[in-house]
Every structure is written in structure tokens, then in C-alpha cells.
Amino acid sequence: MLERGEPGEAAATATPDAGPQASTGQAPSLRELPEPPDAVKARELLADLVVADEDDVPGYSRAKFPHWITQSGTCDTREVVLQRDGQDVVQDDQCRAVSGTWYSEYDGLTIDSASRIDIDHIVPLKEAWRSGASQWTTPERRAFANDLTDSQLIAVSYSSNRKKGDKDPDNWKPSLKSYWCTYSRAWISVKATYHLTANPAEAAALAEMLDTCAT
Hints:
Elements: E1 25-26, H1 39-48, E2 70-72, E3 75-76, H2 77-85, E4 86-91, E5 97-103, E6 110-111, E7 117-121, H3 125-130, H4 138-145, E8 153-157, H5 158-164, H6 180-193, H7 200-210
Antiparallel strand pairs: 1-4, 2-3, 4-5, 5-6, 7-8
Helix pairs in contact: 1-6, 1-7, 6-7
């Protein structure tokens, strides 16, 4: 889940794909992950998740979820999310963010250096492994780890990301309670999209977090 790897793990790498040359310059002023379903729909999706105790399947490795892959030209998934989630982001000719600001939704920090930003997997890679991804093919895990379509990837402070680790919502929640609604909706949406299970305590925590959504 951590851009630089979970504690004690090395970050995975991937072979670049071919593609058109990436553009450089100022990025659009966007600061949000793809919108998850609203609270009503999220409750329906939560009710439909298979609730089961997690199986700590041996053999997990970040290398089984290849990332960050090239999305276009020299731009990999990390750089795409940095551009998407930042304000006034400027990239060099290798698509690296050289300036800009990022607001971390988890803890409310505003950060002016890309080196202090992690790209978080809302549903961590190891959590996905425990709840069904151990049965996937490598291409399926690759798609999950680089998903720019669903509400799965978000730029946040590295400090909040390291505190989160591979914990589910029963064991970790954003320190900003105002983000619990969006976070729970995103988590539920990703689990539903990828047909992943939820353990009982996780499901209860998600229901509690959905209670913070405005009615």
C-alpha cells in the first residue's frame, strides 16, 4: 500500500509499456479520487459483500501486484495520481512532479513536496490478498494495483500511509473523521468491484463509518 513499500518490504517494479509521449507542464487542479457510490448505494453494496473470516494465505508479496506500471509515455501510475490529486503540479520531461501542493485527506496536511507523498491503495494489497486476491492471476493483481478508474488510489501524506499499513477499517481509520464517509464508500466500492470478502469486524466498522455520511 505504501509508495515506498510496506515496512520491511521493497517496492515492486514493473516493465514500462509503450505509449505516446507524456505531456509536461501544469496539471489540472483536481484533488480527489474517482467518486465512489453514494452512501445509500454503499450500504447496499456492503450488505451484498461476502462476510467471512480472513484467511492469512501464505505467499504474499508486493511483487505479485506489479506496480507502478507505465500509463503513457514516461508517466507511471504514481505520477498520474500525483498530477490528478495535486494543485498546480509541474512535471519534468520524465513526467516527475517537480513542484506542486497536495492536500492529504487522511490527516489534513498540505504538502509541497512529492517526495513526502505516498500513493495509497484504499484497499491495501495485503488486505486484498487475504480477502480473495491470492486466487487471482498476476495480470488481475496488476490491474488492481494500478486501478485509476475505481476509487482505489489516492495521494496522501507518507506519515498517514505508514500508520495505515495493511490495516482494515476496524484497525485504522483516517484521523480526519470528516473523511470517514468518503473512505468507507471507497473501500466498500473497491471490495464490491473486485468481489473481495470482508471480515465481520471490518463490515461493522464500515457500517459505523457510513453513519457519518450526511443524509
